[in-house]
UniProtKB/TrEMBL annotation:
The lineage of its organism: Bacteria, Bacillati, Actinomycetota, Actinomycetes, Micrococcales. One of its GO terms (molecular function) is kinase activity. SUPFAM superfamilies: P-loop containing nucleoside triphosphate hydrolases. The keyword Glycoprotein does not apply. Residues 44-260 form the Polyphosphate kinase-2-related domain. It comes from Microbacterium foliorum. Gene3D superfamilies: P-loop containing nucleotide triphosphate hydrolases (3.40.50.300). Coiled coil: none annotated. GO terms for biological process: polyphosphate metabolic process. Keywords: Kinase, Transferase. This is Polyphosphate kinase 2 family protein. PANTHER family: POLYPHOSPHATE:AMP PHOSPHOTRANSFERASE, POLYPHOSPHATE:AMP PHOSPHOTRANSFERASE-RELATED. It comes from the Bacteria.
C-alpha cells in the first residue's frame, strides 16, 4: 500500500463503529513482524528527509506548514513506542513533543483548549501530543469531571479549534491506538514482573480498566462528533506493536508527502561564495 492508502484504510468515516475494529488486525498488510520492522526502517529514510526539508524551509522563512500528530489510547497501548521508534527516528530539532498530564491549577483557570493552543507546532515542525485535549471529553466524560452540558460544548469547541489550526497550515493526524483488554492486561503484568518496568506501572491503570466499556463508548462519541474533513481520526489496531508503529509512520509520510516540502534555494550567490571560501 502507498502511504495515502494506509491513511484511507484506517480513517474514520460515516458509519464507523469502534467495536468492528479487531485490535489484533494487520489490515491490508501482507507481511509479518520481521517484514514490518524492515519496512519501518526503510520508511525512516524518506520520513527523515521530508522532515528535514520541512524544517529547512521554515528556517529560511518560506514554509508555513507543520504537522501535528495526536496520540490517544488506553494505557500501555504503545504511545511511547510510537514516539521512540517512529518520531524518534528524525532530527529532534524539528520535533516538538508534549505529554499532557492532569491540568495544573493555572490551566484549570482557563478554557480547556488554552494549554493546548500554547503547544501547537511552529511552521517546519512535527508536533506530537502524547494525550491531548481529547482527555477532556474522554476521562472528563467517564469520570464526570465536568457537567454533561460542558462536555457537550467541548465537542463543537474542538471542531472549531482544529479547523482554525488546519487552516493555518498544520496537518492534523489524530490517532487512536486500539488495544484489546487482554493485551493490555498482558502488558501491565509485564510491568509488574520486570523490575526495569516498575516505573511505568500506575495502580490507577487497573481502576481505568474496570471502566473499559465506558471508555470505548466515550471514544465512539469522539469519533462520531470530531472526525472531520479538516482533522479526521484514524483508528490503528495496536495489539501488535510493530504494526501500529508502521501504520503511524505511514500516516506521517502521507501528510508530509502532501505538503511536499522542497530544499530552499540559496539566498546568496553560490559560485561567488565558493570563490570567497577557496581564497580564505
Amino acid at each position: 500500500m502507498t502511504a495515502h492508502e494506509w491513511a484511507k484504510t484506517f480513517q474514520v468515516g460515516d458509519g464507523f463503529r469502534l467495536s468492528d475494529v479487531d485490535p489484533r488486525s494487520t489490515a491490508g498488510y501482507g507481511g509479518g513482524k520481521a517484514d514490518g520492522r524492515r519496512d519501518l526502517e526503510a520508511g525512516l529514510s524518506e520520513l527523515n528527509q521530508l522532515q528535514e526539508r520541512l524544517f529547512a524551509e521554515s528556517r529560511v522563512g518560506v514554509a508555513k506548514d507543520s504537522v501535528l500528530l495526536i496520540l490517544q489510547a488506553m494505557d500501555s497501548a504503545g504511545k511511547g513506542g510510537i514516539v521512540r521508534h517512529v518520531v524518534g527516528g528524525v532530527d529532534p530539532q524539528g520535533v516538538a513533543l508534549t505529554a499532557f498530564k492532569a491540568p495544573t491549577d493555572e490551566e484549570l483557570a482557563h478554557d480547556f483548549l488554552w494549554r493546548v493552543a500554547k503547544r501547537l507546532p511552529e511552521p517546519g515542525f512535527i508536533g506530537v501530543f502524547d494525550r491531548s485535549h481529547y482527555e477532556d471529553v474522554l476521562i472528563g466524560r467517564v469520570r464526570s469531571l465536568a457537567p454533561a452540558d460542558e462536555i457537550e460544548r467541548r465537542y463543537d469547541a474542538i471542531n472549531e479549534f482544529e479547523a482554525e489550526v488546519a487552516a493555518s497550515g498544520t496537518r492534523i493526524i489524530k490517532v487512536m491506538l486500539h488495544i484489546s483488554p487482554d493485551e493490555q492486561k498482558s502488558r501491565l503484568m509485564e510491568r509488574l514482573e520486570r523490575a526495569d518496568k516498575h516505573w511505568k506501572y500506575n495502580p490507577g491503570d487497573v481502576d481505568e480498566r474496570l471502566l473499559w466499556d465506558d471508555y470505548m463508548a466515550a471514544y465512539q462519541t469522539v469519533f462520531d462528533r470530531t472526525s472531520t474533513a479538516a482533522a479526521p481520526w484514524h483508528v490503528i489496531p495496536a495489539d501488535h506493536k510493530w504494526f501500529a508503529r508502521l501504520a503511524v509512520q505511514e500516516l506521517l509520510l502521507d501528510a508530509l508527502q502532501q505538503i511536499d516540502p522542497q530544499w530552499p534555494a540559496a539566498g546568496f550567490d553560490v559560485e561567488a561564495e565558493k570563490k570567497r571560501l577557496a581564497a580564505s
